[in-house]
Structures
1.
Amino acid sequence: MSAKQKLLLGAHISTSGGLHKSLERGASIGCTTMQIFTKSNRQWNAKKLTLDEIAEFKQAVKKHDIDPIVVHCTYLINIGSPNQETGKKSLAALVMELQRCQELGLKYLVLHPGSHLNTDEDSALERIAQNIDAAFEAVPGDSMILLETMAGQGSGTCYKFEHIAKVRMLSKHKRRVGVCLDTCHTFVAGYDMRTKKEYEKMWQHFDETIGLDHLKVLHVNDSKKDLGSRVDRHEDLGKGKIGLEGFRLLFNDERFFAIPKIIETPKADLCDDLRNMQTAVNLLSQETREKLKVCVVE
Ligand SMILES: [Zn+2]
Ligand SMILES: [Zn+2]
């Protein structure tokens, strides 16, 4: 009897009380994958991880069988900045994030690639590539940086697949550069996924520019704002402008069964994550259910 592949579904989970606590929380709602911050997302600095913290975390990972655990970088980092001081500070923070991933044995670090702050996109993309390379050189190992597809707010870059393809192309360490696609961001950046035709067109374009092999994580979020609005406001699955059909296509797409799907919808507590995970499960077709084992608490 061959074991069924698990539905890889989870949410961004709080680490309050210690990194290892997040595993218990994730497991309590049936996450088979999840995302965390390994430090405050609104501060530059963090205390170095102690050996005890690392050991406790790894023990919890073993116990709860949640894999992969994706790490999201602090929001302050802007390695695309033309300002030297911000650039330097951002690179140091990225090195710290990557170091923590290596220490914790976590492979995926999701990064908002950066903003050009009223210079130009191309030079920002070059700075981003140089800085991720500098981070890889400072922290050897297997942990990857996943460039997140962005909404295109303000002077943010990487709202086009071409931008991400360019950063990968410029990097000397492509093996360690992957992509995290956020459905809310791509939608407000102008990539429609509401019908089968548009959905297929989006992925074909992704494959032709970046390559589907480089997609490592999906952020599954509906959008409060319209297609092409370039305003980033996440919404519960099915309650926003994307609507259920787009997510039905995504969750039943066999190409992405092995890609972790992380929900980052508005939440007061874990019940909100669970509700969105249940929405996703309800979209699974009979055929998908025959292929995937569902672990979400029902
Ligand atoms: Zn993000
Ligand atoms: Zn967002």
2.
Amino acid sequence: MAAKAAADAAEYAADEARGYADETESSDVEAAAENAALDAENARAAADLASDANDSRTVAMAVEIAEAAQAEAEGALADAAEAKAAEEKAKEEEMLASAEYLGNFTLTAYCNCARCCGTAGNATASGVMPTSNHTVAMGGIDFGTKLLINGTVYTVEDRGTPYGHVDIFMDSHSEALQFGMGSADVYLIRE
Ligand SMILES: [Zn+2]
């Protein structure tokens, strides 16, 4: 049983690492996920050996191998997580390097309801439907302009606030209320 539990844990770690690899283009993450998968296979093979073996010495050895493989798989998962974080940081730094600082702007949030927009369910001033984590409103700047705010890249698709005040689209009125009002450094992203 100990070997089976180790193999299950190794496979879980390998699945998690594969999940990270699927979200990135980093070859480091990919390599770590492959390592975790190999470790999980080793753990499973050792678990099979442990369940087939008749002598206690072989079982003990197989358990030890399975547990070592589990530790390796979990280490590989940690490597994958670290490589993924490094990739994200590098991407953000690259974006910032080509960004132009616009200023510390006022931030508020809105949604598609009648209270925020007069009538509910309207398209944006640019004609597209607004989407969360993407659409912002601000006057004095072209539609389609990309703004980096607190690590997220938004697109100016709507109007309603003057230049220097970014209104961020959210899925619900309660989210918009909860966001309240704030300020942040706003960068223009050139692509
Ligand atoms: Zn609303």
3.
Amino acid sequence: MAPAPPRPALPAPVVAPVTPEARLAYVLRHFRLAYEQVPAVTIGYPAAQPAITVTNGAGGFFDRPAPYPPAPNFREWGGQSVPFFFDAHPKAALLELREDQATINADVIAASFYLLSGWQEYFSEARDQHGRFPYAASVQRQYGFVALPVVNHYFDVLKTAVEHVTGRPLRPRRWAGQPFAAFITHDIDNLHGGWATAVRHALRRGRLTRAATLLVARVRSQPAPWNNLEHVQAETARFGAPSTFFILADNRPAPYGPANADYTADAPAFLNRLATLAATGAEIAGHGSYGTAENPGRLREERKRLQPLGPAGNRFHYLCWEPTRTPETLALAGVTYDSTLGFAEHFGFRNSYCQPFFPFDFPRGRAHSFLEIPLNVMDVTLHHPSYLRLRPEEIMPALRPVLAEIARFGGVATVLWHNANFDPANEATGPRQFDELMRELRQRGAAFLTGTQIVRHLCE
Ligand SMILES: [Zn+2]
């Protein structure tokens, strides 16, 4: 791989002033999606004299392109220590309840907007070697709350106020009758690899016959250990879960970038194979190749190659995402949903929210019409030397609190487990760890859904 030339400086982000009205509308739209049947009740800043008043704490922050607000104030809420940004009255009670009225003394509207819109990424110039906003530059890292869906906690404060004012209980949204949903996904980068790891694994365990069988299979050009889509689907189906496969429709290496697919997505035999998976409950989505996160023409072209399968969703290879350009790219390519937004370096909540959301369109000051189903857990994050390096026995203790938060707020737990990691040769983030995670999700009562089913549940 040739060294990449220095990345050109990003153009200054284009931004129409994000008015308090636009922020309020964006946040309340998501609040109403997060609960079942939110009664009509006015929520807003003091000037509008609403039933639920939120104290304005942002001052002129949203008039300037500054990525980071002042440090948050940590308050106890729902048994957790929750960071409240734009909390202008840290000594005041968080919630004041009077007859038919409520006041929230921290600006949960501004704070929700800041996190959900990805403001920090849009206005920060920090990027890693793949052009991604690094976890190290995030407020989640700085203040230690990546595993907490803080916006859902802000909504919980709003919910308490709404329940007080209306006298009616609000219930978190349910998914196919279950308390939360799980979205089990597989990015398909490689199908023709895995020989060396499988042979090494067999030899380490003294299984010489197995090693010999693998070598013979290799010589006879039989399917490689990672050529296992049907096996992946069967392993996921054991838990009653459908698999969503993200397929890379470009097999040329990106200029100055890493490899794309090692297979040809639009070969008729492969399209037929995908159609068979789809006919038995799987969903086929697009895995935008390296560079397409900023190139709507190429992204559209790749999606066309998968057209017989009508892919609705997308996730970018390497989780590439340029905040100032990617949302527009997805909109222009006609994507129904995306599922890229997680930090590669850490599991949890990149936008501090555990439900799907409509990304904010900064130039137009309103929501985009495609849905983001944020990514919470990626296999590579858990063990890769550049990331968390968890031992197998450390994985579930690390993930359980995250899953508990998603279940509590009726969110979606999105899991990315690459097909290569269904190979038993992987003992660190392999089939065994996947199995443990799936058991935990099932035991907590997840509704296992495809991306398209999630969109349907949320938008209909
Ligand atoms: Zn990939």
